[in-house]
Amino acid sequence: MSEPVADGAGRRARVRLRLGARSQLAGLDRRTLGFGDVVAQSVAVMAPCAAAATIPMLVSQSGGPLVWSVIGAAVLSALVAVTLGAFASRMAAPGALYTYVAKGLGSTSGLITAAAMVLGYGALGVLMLSQMSWYGLRLIGVDDPGPAQICVAATALAVLCAVLLIRGIRFSARVGLVVESVAVVVLLAVVVALLVRTSPHSSLSAMVAGPDRMTDLFSGVAIAVCGLVGFESAATLSVEARRPLRTVPRAMRVSLGIGVVVVVLATAAQAGNLSVLEAIAGLGSGDLGVLTRELGVGWVTPIVYIGVCASFLACMLASTTALTRTLLSLSREGVVPAPLGRTHPRYKTPVVGVVMSVALIAAVVVVSIFAGASANSVRGSMASAPAIAFLVAYALVCVAAPVFLYRTGELQPRIVVAAALGSVGIVAILVVFIVTNIGGVWWPGILAAVAWLVIAALGCVVLRVVRPELLARVGIHETPTRSEVWSGHLDTDDIAVVGPTR
Predict the structure, then answer these.
(1) Which of 67, 44, 50, 65 is nearest to 280 (CA)?
(2) Residue 413: Cβ within 10 Å count
(3) How confident is residue 77, by pLDDT bands cut at 50, 70 and 90?
C-alpha cells in the first residue's frame, strides 16, 4: 500500500505505508457498543436532570432571561457539535477532542486540550460523587450528615463505581443508560405535576420575556452553556463503538438534542411560574420541602431523591469512563505513565486508569469534606472548573477544524461558518462566565481551572525543549490492522512499533 507525498523539494514521491499487526490502541473492547450505548455516555455526562434543576436557578440569579439564555446556549452548542462532526466522521480516537486539536493545530495545543479534558471529566466526577454521597444519605434518613458519614458514603460509592467500570464498557454503559432514563422520567414527571398544579398562576409573557440588557443575555447564555457540556464525550468511546465514523457524530447530535429538550422544557416551566422555579431549584440545593409543599404530597420526596441519585451515578460512571479513555490515549503516546494504558485481559477496560482515577476523585472529596468545605462550596467549585475546561476545549476544536480540513483538501463552507461562529461565541461566553462569577461562590474552581491550564501550557513548553520526540507522538488514532485487510503475521518490525502486548 502506498501513498503519494511531497518531498522537501516539492517533488512527489511514493512512500510505502505498512499496516501493523496490532493497533496502537489495542486492548479495548473494539466495535462492541451500539448506538444507544454511545448516546447514553454523552447524555450521562451532560446530566440533563441535574442541569434542569440548577441551570434555571443560576440563570435567574444572574439576571438573564431563562428561556432565551437556554436557547442561545443550545444554538452555540449545536455549532460546536457540527464542528466536532467534521473530526468524528474521519477518525476514531479515545483522546477525542485533544486528538482532533493536535491534528489541526499541533501537539502543543493538543496537550493543552488534553489537560482541559482531564480537568473537566475529573472535576465532574468529584462533583457527582460528593453530591451522590450527600443525597444518598438523605435518602436513607440522614438529614444532616456529618463529615465522617459523607466520607464513608463517598468511599463506598467510589468502590461501587470502580467495580462497574472495570466490569466492562458494555455493562457500565447500560447501567448508565438505565439509571439516567429513570432520572429523566422522574424529573419530567415532577415538572408535569408542578405545571398541572400551578397552571392557573403561569404566565406566557413571563415565559418568553426578553432581556433588559444584552449583558444579561450573555451572562445567562454563559451559565446555560455549562448545563449542556459533555455531549462530546461519545467520541471517547469511538474505538469501542460499532461503525464509529457514523455512530459517534450521530450520537453527539442526538444526545445534545435530548439534553436541550429536557433543559428547555424544565426551564420553560420555571420561567412561567415563580413557585415552580423555587420548587425545581430545591432539587439543586437539596431542599425538597418547597417541592413537597407545591405538590401537596410527601411521598414524592424519596422518589425524587432516587431520580437525582440515579442521575449523579450515571454521570459519575460516564465522566470517569471518558477520563480513563483520555488517560489511556495519553499513556500510549508516552505523555503519562504507561500503567494508565494497561487494559484488563478479560473485561478489556483500562483497569489501572479506572482504579487510580476513582481513588483520586474519592480522595479529593474526602479531603475537601474534612477540610471543612460544605456541600454548596464543593458544588460551586466543582461545577465552575469543568465549565471552563470544556469551553476552552470547545474553542480550540472550533479553531482546529478548518485548519485540519484545509490540510486534507476537504474544507467546506458550512464547517468554516460553524467553526467561526462557534469559536467567537465560546470565547465571548468564556470571558463573560469568568468575569461574572469570579467574585461569587464559584471563584475557587475558576482560579483552580485557570491555574491548571497555565501550568499545562508551561509544561508543554518544557516538553518541547526537553522531549521533542514525545510531542511528535501526540494525536494517535485507530488505523486498520493487517488482519482486517488480509491475513498477516506479527513480525519483529510490528513488535518494535506497537510494543509488547498489554
Answers:
(1) 50
(2) 7
(3) very high
